[in-house]
Design brief:
66% helix; 249 residues; Arc Repressor Mutant, subunit A; mainly alpha; 2 domains
């Protein structure tokens, strides 16, 4: 008797994918630590009962995910590396490019995530605000260097997300900030006087946020930071038709 709704094809994972899944699980659970070499090919082939091509297929999968690096040659081999946020940003960027997402859309997503983090940070206050303030004040030293200030400003945003205390939001924002960092470099390179009032305005906004956070006013902090990030979006994406292809290609 046929199943309701027609037949369903079940895809059976290849041996290389199964081995990659096993090794991936060991890496993300800490059984295999960053910097540690994987056992040699002969040992792994015997453990999994597979051929060298199948094992190397597993290595290619893990290497593409950025969680191992494979050195070729007589003294080569596979070595574990910690998951890299830039790898996630690259794949996220590819997906967004494929969908033709406007750059402004990335800025708006960042705003929603970061405003939430500011609210969490304002509710905690205390030492977290002192840590943010220390990062914010570094901006004075690089105010006249557009490239250095752009890196500083990204660091401020990363610190806000980290101190907000929600790890998932932090990871998501980190991917977006990596994309926006690439856009900032392009933005600066295309302007003869890229700093303009932007750096000074950003530094004043960062300092004002610290003052609001010290007062422990989540609602005020969220409203102020949303207004600031909205203005940043307008400043950085004056052409709303710009897509990520121009930025990440």
């Amino acid at each position: 008797m046929p199943l309701a709704g027609g037949s369903t094809v079940v895809r059976v994972p290849k041996a290389g994918e199964l081995i990659a899944a096993d090794l991936r699980r060991q890496i993300i659970t800490g059984k295999l630590e960053a910097g540690e070499p994987l056992p040699n090919e002969a040992t792994l082939m015997e453990r999994f009962g597979v051929s060298r091509p199948t094992l190397r297929e597993a290595f290619r999968i893990l290497e593409s995910e950025g969680i191992i690096t494979v050195l070729r040659g007589a003294h080569g081999g596979a070595r574990v590396q910690a998951p890299d946020r830039s790898t996630m940003a690259r794949y996220t960027g590819l997906l967004l490019q494929y969908r033709g997402v406007p750059l402004a859309d990335v800025y708006r997503a960042r705003t929603e995530i970061e405003v939430a983090a500011v609210g969490l940070l304002a509710a905690e206050a205390g030492d977290c605000v002192d840590r943010l303030a220390a990062v914010v004040e570094r901006g004075e030293e690089v105010l006249d260097d557009p490239h250095a200030f752009a890196k500083y400003d990204v660091e401020v945003h990363r610190t806000i997300m980290e101190l907000g205390g929600n790890h998932t939001l932090d990871v998501l924002a980190g991917m977006l900030l990596d994309i926006m960092d690439a856009h900032a470099a392009l933005f600066i390179s295309q302007r003869s006087r890229p700093s303009g009032p932007g750096a000074a305005v950003a530094l004043r906004a960062n300092r004002k946020l610290v003052r609001i956070l010290r007062r422990g006013e989540p609602g005020t902090a969220e409203a102020f930071w949303r207004k600031h990030l909205d203005s940043v979006e307008r400043y950085m994406t004056d052409d709303n038709e710009t897509t990520l292809i121009e930025v990440l290609s």
